[in-house]
Amino acid sequence: MIPLKDSQLFRDRAYIDGGWRDADSRKTFEVTNPATGEVIGTVPDMGGAETRRAIEAAERALKSWAAKTAKERANVVRRWFELMMENQDDLALLLTTEQGKPLAEAKGEVAYAASFLEWFGEEAKRVYGDTIPQHQPDKRIVVIKQPIGVVACITPWNFPLAMVTRKAGPAIVAGCTVVLKPAEQTPYSALALAELAERAGLPKGVLNVITGDPPAIGKELTASPIVRKLSFTGSTEIGKLLMAQCAGTVKKMSLELGGNAPFIVFDDADLDAAADGAIVSKYRNTGQTCVCANRFLVQDKVYDAFAAKLVERVKALKVGRGTDAGVSQGPLIDRQGLAKVEAHVQDAVAKGARIAVGGKRHALGGTFFEPTVLTGVNTRMAVAREETFGPVAPLFRFHTEDEAIQIANDTEFGLAAYFYGRDIGRVWRVAEALEFGIVGINTGLISTAEAPFGGVKESGIGREGSKYGLEEFLEVKYLCMGGIQEPSQFPSGPMWRGRDLGQASASVLASALVASGFAAIAVEVIAAGLRGLFPGLTG
Ligand code: ADP
Fold first, then answer.
1. Backbone φ and ψ of 210, nearest 5°
2. H/E element holding 220?
3. Share of the chain above pLDDT 70, in %
4. Which residues' Cβ are closer than 6 Å to ligand 1?
5. Is 479 a residue whose pLDDT tops 70?
6. Who's near 193: CB < 8 A, 6+ residues apart?
7. For the CA of 221, the nearest atom of ligand 1
8. What's the CA gap between 223 and 191, in Å, rounded?
9. Is-contact 395 296, C-beta < 8 A?
10. Residue 290: active-site member
C-alpha cells in the first residue's frame, strides 16, 4: 500500500461515464514500482468494447458540456486545479511510486500539470472569433470557434500527470469531452486525476479514463467516427501507426513524438551557466524527457573546460529511489529502457568514445544506470542518430557556427534545441537556422503552460500549451451572411417581391397616418413592416 493521506486517490479501476469499472473479462494487469520491481497493484485490462462504451459516454456528455459558458467550464477546471494542489504530496508520491522520478521532481510535476488546468481555464474565456471585411456589399463574414467534439488522448509514462492535463485541460475547457488512455506503466496518476475531476464537479462522461491493451484501445479510438481528434504523446513509431489508422476517418491530430535535441555550447558562452543548463536539460527525469538534450555540440576552444564543468556536476548527482531524501536520479522506467541506454554507451565506446564519468549499470541494480558523460563522440555513433532516453551526455566537438548548425539539423527529428552563447548576431542567426519547434537560448528549461510546445519534421504535428494549444481543440466555422442590402437596393426578383410590397405598402400607409396626426400608430405600423422584413425581430 502506498501511504497516501487520502487513500481514495489510489483508484485501481477504469473511469467510464462517471463510474469506476472493471474490464468485461474481469482481467487485470500489474503495475510495478521501477525502483523496487514490486507490484503496486493491478488495473483493468480493457479492450475495444469498453473503449466503445467510453466513446459513447463522451458523446452523450458532449452537447450539454459544450453548451455551458466558458466561465462555467472554467470554474470546474479551476476547482480541479485547486484539488491537485491541495493533494500535491499524495499525487507526487503516487507518481514517484509508479514512475520512479525523485519526489521533488514529482512535486514539481504536480504543480506543472496543475498549471495547465489553471491557465487553460482562464484562456478559454478568450476564444474569440473574427469579423472579416466582406468581399461583396450585401454580405458579412463572421468566424466562430466551436469545440471539435469527442477527443481521444493517449499519454506516455514519463510525465504521467502533465501529459494528461496538457491535453485534457484545453480539450475540456474548450467544450470537448475526452476518452483518455494513459500509459500502462503509469495508470494510477491518471486515475487519481479522474477522481479529483469528479470531486471538482466535472459531469459524468466529460472525462473517461480507460486502461488496458494499447493496440485494441488504439484501434477503437482511431476507427470511431465519433472521435474527431486524437492527441498523442509517445514514440515516433506509434505516432506514425496512429496517423495511418486515423486516415480512415480523417481525424484532426496532435502528435508529440520523439526528439534528438542538440545542445550547442559556443566559445563565448557562460560555461557555468551552460553546465547548469545541461544538467537540467539532460538529467531531469533521469534523461527520460522528449526535450532532453541528446547531443552536446561543444566548440573546440571551450570543449575541455565545458567537459570538466559538466563532469564535476554529474559526479554530484545522487542516484537512488525517488522516495529517498536527496536523490536526484531515479531508476529508468523498465529493462527495455535500460538495455537501450547500455547499448548506446557500448556502441559509442566501441567506436572510440571515452567515458569521462559513469558508463555502466548502477550498483543499486534493477534499472538504475550511472549518470554518464562521453567525450570524443562522433556522428557515426548511435547516440548521434537515436534518442537515448537515459542519463548519458555525449560530447561532440565542432569548429564553426555553420558546422554546428549542420550537425544540429542533421536529424529527422525537430522537437527541442538549446544553445549557449552571448554574441547577439549569432544568437539570432542560430535561433533562426535551427529546424526545431522549440529553441532554448541560454537556458535548459523551456516547458511552461504559457508557451507553445511541439515539434517539426518527424517530431510531430501541432502544439500544446498556450493559445495555440487551445486552438487544437477548436474548429473554425465561417458564417457567410447574405442579403444585407440597403432597402432601396433590393432586387426585384421573386424572392424579394413579397417583402418589397409589404414594406412599400407599410410606408405609404405610415405617411398617410403621420399626415393625419396619428404619429403613435405610425410607429407601430413601421415596426410591423420591419417585422415582416426581419421575422426574428422582436424589439
Ligand atoms: P514508449 O516506447 O516510450 O512507451 P509508446 O509510443 O510505445 O512509447 O507509448 C506511448 C503511449 O502509446 C502509451 O500510452 C502506450 O500504451 C500507447 N501505445 C503503444 N502502442 C499503441 C498502439 N498500437 N495503439 C495505441 N496506443 C499505443
1. -115, 140
2. helix 214-223
3. 91
4. 154-156, 181, 183-184, 214-215, 218, 234-235, 238, 241
5. yes
6. 84, 161, 164, 165, 168, 209
7. 25
8. 24
9. yes
10. yes
Alpha carbon of 327 to ligand 1 centroid (Å): 29
**Residue 486: predicted pLDDT:** 78
Decide the pairing of beta strands 140-147 and 474-481.
antiparallel
**Start-to-end C-alpha separation, the chain:** 66
147: amino acid identity, one letter? P
What is the pLDDT at residue 493? Answer: 52
d(CA 361, CA 378): 23
278 C-alpha to center of ligand 1: Å? 28
Atom of ligand 1 nearest to the CA of 219: 24
pLDDT at position 537: 43
SS3 content of the chain, % helix, strand, coil (to 5): 45, 20, 35
Per-residue pLDDT, averaged over 406-431, amounts to 98
Question: How far is the centre of ligand 1, averaged over its atoms, from the C-alpha of 430 (Å)?
Answer: 34
Backbone φ, ψ for residue 180 (5° rounding): -115, 135
Q: Which ligand 1 atom sits closest to the C-alpha of 183?
A: 14
Residue closest via CA to ligand 1's atom 7 equals 235
Contact (Cβ atoms closer than 8 angstroms) between residue 322 and residue 35 = yes
Pocket test for ligand 1, best of 238, 242, 338 (most atoms within 8 A of CB): 238
Grid cell locating 475:
474548429
Per-residue pLDDT reduced to its tens digit, 511-539: 544 444 445 444 454 554 555 455 444 43
For the segment 192-209, what is each residue's pLDDT rounded down to a tens digit?
999 999 999 999 999 999
Q: What CA–CA distances, in Å, run from 471 to 130, 147, 202, 226, 388?
A: 14, 9, 22, 20, 32
User: In which element (H, E) is residue 141 found?
Assistant: strand 140-147
State the Rg of the chain over Cα: 29
> Average of pLDDT values for 210-217?
98
Q: Report how far ligand 1's centroid is from the alpha carbon of 211 (Å).
A: 12
What is d(CA 123, CA 138) in angstroms, rounded to the nearest whole number?
Answer: 34
Give Cβ neighbours of residue 159 (< 8 Å, ≥ 6 apart).
109, 113, 285, 289
Residues 6+ apart with CB under 8 A from 260: 294, 295, 385, 386, 387, 411, 413, 415
Question: Would you put residue 201 in left (φ > 0), alpha (ψ -120 to 50) or beta?
Answer: left
The percentage of the chain sitting over the pLDDT mark of 90, rounded to a whole number, equals 90
- Separation of 232 CA from ligand 1 center, angstroms? 9
Catalytic residue, candidates 195, 256, 458, 464:
256
| Active-site entry in 153, 176, 246, 290 | 290
Packing angle of the helix pair 187-200, 88-99 (nearest 10 deg): 160
Name the nearest CA neighbour of 288 among 251, 237, 233: 233
246 in active site:
no
DSSP string, 365-403: -TT-B--EEEEEE-TTSHHHHS---SSEEEEEEE-SHHH
